[in-house]
Amino acid sequence: MGANVVMPQLGETVAEGRIVSWFKKVGDTVTAGERLFEVETDKVTIDVEAIEAGTITEIRVGDGATAPVGAVVAILGGASANEPIPTPKAEKPTGDKARDVAKAAPSLIAFEEVRTSRGLFGKALQDGIRVTPLARRLIAEQGVDLKGLLADRSNKGLDRIAIKDVQAYLSERGTFRSMAPHAATAASASLLPPSLPVGPRDQVVAFSNIRQRTADRLAESWRTIPHVFQALEVDFTAVDTVRKLQKDAFKAEHGLALTFLPFITKAACIVLREYPEINARTDGARLIRCGDINIGIAVDLSHKGLVVPVLHNADELTVPGIAKRLGRLVEKARTGKLGADDMAGGTYSITNNGAFGTQFTAPIINAPQVAILSSDAIRLRPAVVSTSAGDFIAPRMLGMVGQSFDHRAFDGAYSAAFLSRLKSVLETRKWDQEFG
Amino acid sequence: MAELTYRDAVARAIAQEMRRDERVVFLGEDVAKAGGVFKATVGLLEEFGPRRVRDTPISEQAILGAAMGAAMTGLRPIAEIMFSDFMAVCFDYVANEFPKTRYMTNGQLSVPLVVRTGNGGGVRFGAQHSQSIENWSMMIPGLKVVAPSSPVDVVGLMAAAVRDNNPVIFHEHKALYSIKGEVPDGEIVDTLGTAKVLRSGRDCTIIALAMMVPRAMEAAKRLSAEHGIDAEVIDVRCLVPLDTQTILGSVVKTGRLFTVEENPRLCGWGAEIVSIVADEAFWDLDGPCVRITTPHIPLPAADHLEDIALPTADRIVERVSRVMNGD
To answer: Which chain A residues are Cβ-neighbours of B251 within 8 angstroms?
Structure first.
């Protein structure tokens, strides 16, 4: 084994030393403690002794030459001239080589007494889904098709990938199961806060992932956003007239029922352009008026959860265009095939409970959006109709349209004006022109 | 094989070492004639006499100063600080003198002593007599730090501490003095810096110390029975040196780490372990490392308040099961 002979630190402020003369020459054998050379600094001149025994194989800094503190001035024993003094050095593997590097055991950083993990296995956040470190490593090591895995998870409405997800994906590759609740067993009783009593006849149902995610998001929204709800009655007779005229042809051509929802969506898009602070997002300190109008539509999964796929640039679509796109999204939602892109980017939301005959619904805002529209049952009811010939009672298709808004973002009059204008568009727009 | 209390294990350990080595002496407040306020040193005065087993004045500085002088001049003293909280009174010795002397004299002097101290809460002694202070010593280079959870570990680790040439702070848990456990006959010597895997498991690793160990064990049983979570439980036993090999090995196996710490949250011993795991085992983690600790508050004296503050088996079960299942 060889060793480097270095220029010693001869004082706190000394940076270099000049070797006055060597007492030994190349080939000489030295013992520990034997004088090697005399060194001179601006403060002192002293003899430097060998720390260990060996044979001098090389003298790099000769008589009269100067070297900085720590520099190798000679080599003792069989040490190679190129062998550096080992110094701790941070490893910085790059992406491609990460897998190989990670297999090598990391070495101890003596000064900090840790063996810092090596390797890089991709970002923690991929397409809005969080992937745990162990899962990322397995994905990289197994060469898992990340896109497929991400799509599988987001189809299931989930936002995390842990090791068990990767393992499950690997073992059931290609098979998609929709949103099975995980760990929903009687044993999960104590998942509940300890204060919640469970009687012998009670049944405990642990939240599925989608339920938990919905719960967390809605609770957060309800806690942080001052909600105000307003609703007004809209006369859908004009809409219904066109809808009845078109629905059979539409059904025949596209296999989809033509409901009121595409009309309401279209009307909302028109009015949102006039009220830009409603088509917006907020973080509580700023309002971002969104350039695009992307309408989230709440879709119930047969009481097993709620997803909100998004109609991107809905304002560029006609009523039948909205109906068709909506039909596709609902189909994807119900078969568990929504991708992350299908659910991202909403700027405003609409929820519709009309199928169950509800009168009105006060929905919770889908943060960071600032408002959500609700529509309910639309049915024939007696109404007062004013004509040039006088006022009459007539059967009209009436329904409530309501909006919950974030009072931090704007005030009640703005929201009311929006609703009023929405009512006007729904009641007076020439809807037949949408069907060219 | 005999069943001993943790309390009796202390006296047995000291006696074992005093019989073996004449240089071992023992001093502290009310430790000799009274047998200690926690009755952990009963019988030592009778067996070894007043030269080797000494009552001292009520001065923590005098106790540790005398112990240090004795250690530097050839004895191997065991000094008692009755309540670990009082370490603050004599902390100059603990922080500046014991751990630095061997280093600063380049090994010409060493300080082979053991400070045993009644540590921890759960016994309604209030904010100044209940603290869990093992992390105070953990942060000082030059000290070794021990906190056993069972009678057999008290004997084995005390023997190892007495035989170590460095100052060792030996934390006995006040609430554990009455627990019982099997202790084999004959001489017992353990190894500092070794953790014990008390329960093997696949799903997560729970690391605990002293009084938190039985609570973690109970929690593990319930996690298995009620939640199907198979937790591995590790008793750290010794914070310095730290058995990182056992800890990292377990985390690599399970992918999940929980620490159960009696010390207040900020800078608790588990923070260091979590830091090491985050550094060295990052790519083996399948979820966040979670610390279950006493909150960062002075410990209340009232029964129900103290019970709320200290981590319980209920809290461990609730926290672990939520984190493991609620993702």
So the answer is: none
CATH class of A212-435: alpha beta
- Interatomic CA distance for residues A283 and A208, integer angstroms: 28
Q: Say if CB A401 and CB A375 are below 8 A apart.
A: yes
Residue indicated by tokens 């929006």: A418
| pLDDT > 70 fraction of chain B, expressed in percent and rounded | 99
Cβ distance of A191 and B325 shorter than 8 Å: yes
Instruction: Look at residue B188 and tell me whether its pLDDT is greater than 60.
Output: yes
Region of poorest pLDDT, from A74-83, A195-204, B77-86, B255-264: A74-83
Q: Which of A303, A298, A296 is nearest to A211 (CA)?
A: A303
CATH of domain B196-325: 3.40.50.920
Q: Where do the structural domains in chain B lie, given as residue ranges?
A: 2-183, 196-325
Q: Do B285 and A134 touch (CB under 8 A)?
A: yes
Residue A13 pLDDT level (bands cut at 50, 70, 90)? low
pLDDT category, B21, cuts 50, 70, 90? very high
Which CATH architecture group holds A3-76? Beta Barrel (2.40)
Contact B283, A121 (CB under 8 A): yes
pTM: 0.55
Q: Are B316 and B260 in contact (CB under 8 A)?
A: yes
- Position A304 scores a pLDDT of 77
Question: Across the interface, do A190 and B227 touch by the CB < 8 Å criterion?
Answer: yes
Per residue in B142-154, pLDDT tens? 999 999 999 999 9
Nearest CB to B326 within list A115, A137, A191: A191
- Please check whether the two domains, B2-183 and B196-325, share a CATH topology: yes
Of B222, B279, B327, the CB nearest to A116: B279
What is the SS3 assignment for A259? coil
* Domain coordinates in residue numbering, chain A: 3-76, 212-435
d(CA B143, CA A420): 76
pLDDT at position A326 is 93
The reply to whether residue A134 touches residue B276, judged by beta carbons under 8 angstroms, is no
Topology of domain B2-183 in CATH is Rossmann fold (3.40.50)
Identity of the residue in A102, A163, A188 whose CB atom sits nearest the CB atom of B325: A188
Contacts of B284 in chain A (CB under 8 A): 133-134, 137
Q: What confidence score (pLDDT) does residue A339 get?
A: 80
The ipTM is 0.72
